């Protein structure tokens, strides 16, 4: 999506963001140069879509899988801030990305060509029902084939037709995953979990072998194959904008974990990156400000 963030004095800064893009961006910033990170989405044929493609390429994110749709444009969102905590306004009903899974062969081919698949509750929420089912069938297939499938529920009630559809579809997303990376405040608020243990238990019972719960300034709890660990958050002097805290954590974590297979060390790295991200405006913080 195109992102409008606060630039001071009533001015808005234009950027590009969206939860899966943010995660790809931080993974790319943190991963070994020899690894490739590709973004699978749909864009339009307008100037803004061209600019986004150029921006992804400049960041080193592969764009060959991106479908261009005639007459369409990217979605738009604006970050609203209250004491550093973000909320979003969206203009995305007609975005090109809603058609990202409309071509099942293309989707299957893209997934077959990769070792790791990352998607989110927002990915599922913006798709027409039958396309969400297509994507879920492919992520189940990928997991069964031994690929590492990673899912962040990223619960956004406004994007879903109803609570029941949201609950069922997010549960299916988790069931088709090797690792689920939820944020505890969302899970407690929307799915009624009264503890981090309850969230871990729910996702493991659905069939996700690994769960990593992010909990804002209270750090992160991991349960990898039944082994539980806790990693505290970094202390942040001033929380400026929490947009992308969770996505940057996910991208940084995956970059380290895929290389080292050390979940705790990777979470320790991810809390450091996320701490830098909440200290700046907007979803994507420049690599030289991440302290890598
Ligand atoms: N106020 C904060 N101080 C320090 N670290 C933070 C803060 N807020 C978020 N983080 C870091 O970002 C990670 C993700 O934040 P969280 O708020 O749980 O995700 P989301 O943005 O998805 O709601 C946390 O696990 C933590 O490491
Ligand atoms: O809401 C959406 O659809 C977006 O993708 C916009 C934001 O860039 C991410 O939501 C940020 O995600 P957090 O890491 O949870 O702060």
UniProtKB/TrEMBL annotation:
The record's annotation in InterPro entries points to: Carboh/pur_kinase_PfkB_CS, PfkB_Carbo_kinase, PfkB_dom, Ribokinase-like
GO biological process terms on file? D-galacturonate catabolic process; D-glucuronate catabolic process; DNA damage response
**Known EC number(s)?**
2.7.1.45
Which UniProt keyword terms apply here?
Kinase, Transferase
**Would you indicate the residue range of the signal peptide?**
none
In the UniProt record, does the keyword Amino-acid biosynthesis occur? no
Carbohydrate kinase PfkB domain location is 13-284
- Asked if the keyword Mitochondrion belongs to this entry, the reply reads no
Q: Which Gene3D superfamilies match?
A: 3.40.1190.20
What top-level branch of life does the organism fall under? Bacteria
Q: Record's GO cellular component, any one?
A: cytosol
Which family, according to the similarity comment? Belongs to the carbohydrate kinase PfkB family.
Q: Would you tell me the protein name for this molecule?
A: 2-dehydro-3-deoxygluconokinase
């Amino acid at each position: 999506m195109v992102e409008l963030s606060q630039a001071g004095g009533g001015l808005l800064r234009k950027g590009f963001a969206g939860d899966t893009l943010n995660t790809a961006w931080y993974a790319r910033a943190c991963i070994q140069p020899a690894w490739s990170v590709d973004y699978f989405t749909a864009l339009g044929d307008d100037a803004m879509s061209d600019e986004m493609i150029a921006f992804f390429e400049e960041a080193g994110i592969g764009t060959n899988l991106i479908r261009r749709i005639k007459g369409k444009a990217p979605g738009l969102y604006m970050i609203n801030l209250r004491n550093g905590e973000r909320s979003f306004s969206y203009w995305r009903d007609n975005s090109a990305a809603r058609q990202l899974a409309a071509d099942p062969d293309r989707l299957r081919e893209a997934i077959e060509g990769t070792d790791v698949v990352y998607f989110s509750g927002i990915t599922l929420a913006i798709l027409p029902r039958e396309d969400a089912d297509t994507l879920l069938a492919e992520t189940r297939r990928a997991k069964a084939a031994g690929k590492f499938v990673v899912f962040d529920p990223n619960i956004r009630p406004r994007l879903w037709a109803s609570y029941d559809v949201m609950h069922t579809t997010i549960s299916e997303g988790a069931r088709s995953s090797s690792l689920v990376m939820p944020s505890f405040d969302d899970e407690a608020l929307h799915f009624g979990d009264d503890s981090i243990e309850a969230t871990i238990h729910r996702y493991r019972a659905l069939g996700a072998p690994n769960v990593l719960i992010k909990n804002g300034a209270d750090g992160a709890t991991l349960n990898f194959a039944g082994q539980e660990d806790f990693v505290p958050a970094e202390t942040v002097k001033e929380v400026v904008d929490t947009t992308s805290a969770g996505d940057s954590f996910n991208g940084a974590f995956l970059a380290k974990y895929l290389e080292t297979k050390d979940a705790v060390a990777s979470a320790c790295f991810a809390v450091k990156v996320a701490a830098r991200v909440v200290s700046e405006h907007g979803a994507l913080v420049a690599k030289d400000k991440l302290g890598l």
